Amino acid sequence: MEEQQAAPRDPSTGETAPRLPPRRSSSFGHRIPDQPPWAGDYGFVGGDRRLAFSRQPSFRQPEPHSPFPPQRTQSLRANLSRSDSFISIPSSGSDEYGMGYGKSAMNGGRDSRNLSLLHWMVSVVQAISSGNRPMKRLALMISLNVAYSTAELLIGIFTGRVGLVSDAFHLTFGCGLLTFSLFAMAASRKKPDGVYTYGYKRLEVLSAFTNALFLLFMSFSIAVEALHAFIQDESEHKHYLIVSAVTNLLVNILGVWFFRSYARVNIVYRKAEDMNYHSVCLHVLADSIRSAGLILASWFLSLGVENAEVLCLGLVSVAIFMVVMPLFRASGNILLQMAPASIPSSAFSKCWRQITSLEDVSEVSEARFWELVPGHCIGSLSVQVKRGAEDLPILRYVHGLYHDLGIQDLTVQVEHL
């Protein structure tokens, strides 16, 4: 046993001073500052991670290792980059004794978040004002619908017409959905950031799905209205809606003309903007069909045709359902991250067979492919190779195979058996 060193004595009292534990060095390699006598060691060893949040990182992060050359090419082939796992410790505002942020720093962070939200809203408004032609046309159409629904609401309140008030609320809700479509057009122009790493393009898909869902609900409500009119025989008291239907039809025809290039039921979506523009066109087209059905029903009733409103509203409900269902299915498939509809399942099976037929490949598993937005396909899969085999030629072959298939972003995990 080594001989222990005697504890030092206090010259004023002659008593033995308490032994302090030896000063420990930090696991991050920086020197611990001199502490006052009351600040001793509290039992945290140098490698303890519980105080890591209050220390400045002084270690050097490992350089990412990639099997591909570092230079970038103009091809769309995705490169695989693997790096060692590490914890990124942000720089803190603590003092030299490891104390945390004060109340002023917390308030400053909250204020900065509020300012960033305000700045983001202002940037969206600026994007709308300086947007392209479809955005400006949609803003004009929303303004016309808001003015018309406000006038219809006031007339319905002062004249006591419940049908006008109900139709005004229906138009107001539709204007809200069109406003969301306009917001999605403006926000999707923002570039990807640290939080939304894929950008905001999927907002347009969400807007298209919301419009389609609303139109399906409107189709169901029109069918219920037709059934109610058939049971109660209340067709006569709605003749005054003919003026409202004609005015609404003129406004919606203007919107259909604005987006006339998307006035089709089935359309091939090449970009996220195509899906959003198509949903706006179908929205105003469905409103036009509804107004035309009310006008036709009023005309038939004036000719003495019985149950004319039931027949016209039933046809309108079926027409809206058939027009909107393809958009609802396409946008829903993207949000549910189903396999890309533009690539047949037989093509994925063929690629899987070609990869497994390689000599150094043992198994291919966890193959997942989906669409982020129309025209942007993403995939990931795991490839198990034999031990000692070179994975670089296999990676190049897999990336080229799926790139030719239409997968822009591919992540491949290689496991050596």
UniProtKB/TrEMBL annotation:
GO biological process, one term: metal ion transport
MF terms (GO), sorted A to Z: metal ion transmembrane transporter activity; zinc ion transmembrane transporter activity
Gene3D superfamilies assigned to the protein according to its UniProt record, in alphabetical order: Cation efflux protein transmembrane domain
Region (Disordered): 1-74
Keywords, ordered alphabetically: Membrane, Transmembrane, Transmembrane helix, Transport
Domain of life where this protein originates: Eukaryota
Cross-referenced Pfam families: Cation_efflux
Coiled-coil regions listed: none
Annotated Gene Ontology cellular component terms: Golgi apparatus; vacuolar membrane
Stretches that traverse the bilayer: 138-162, 168-187, 208-231, 237-259, 280-302, 308-328
Domain Cation efflux protein transmembrane: from-to ranges: 139-336
Recorded topology in the membrane: Multi-pass membrane protein
Cellular compartments annotated: Membrane
Alphabetical list of InterPro entries matching this protein: Cation_efflux (IPR002524), Cation_efflux_TM (IPR058533), Cation_efflux_TMD_sf (IPR027469), Msc2-like (IPR045316)
Name of the protein in its database record: (wild Malaysian banana) hypothetical protein
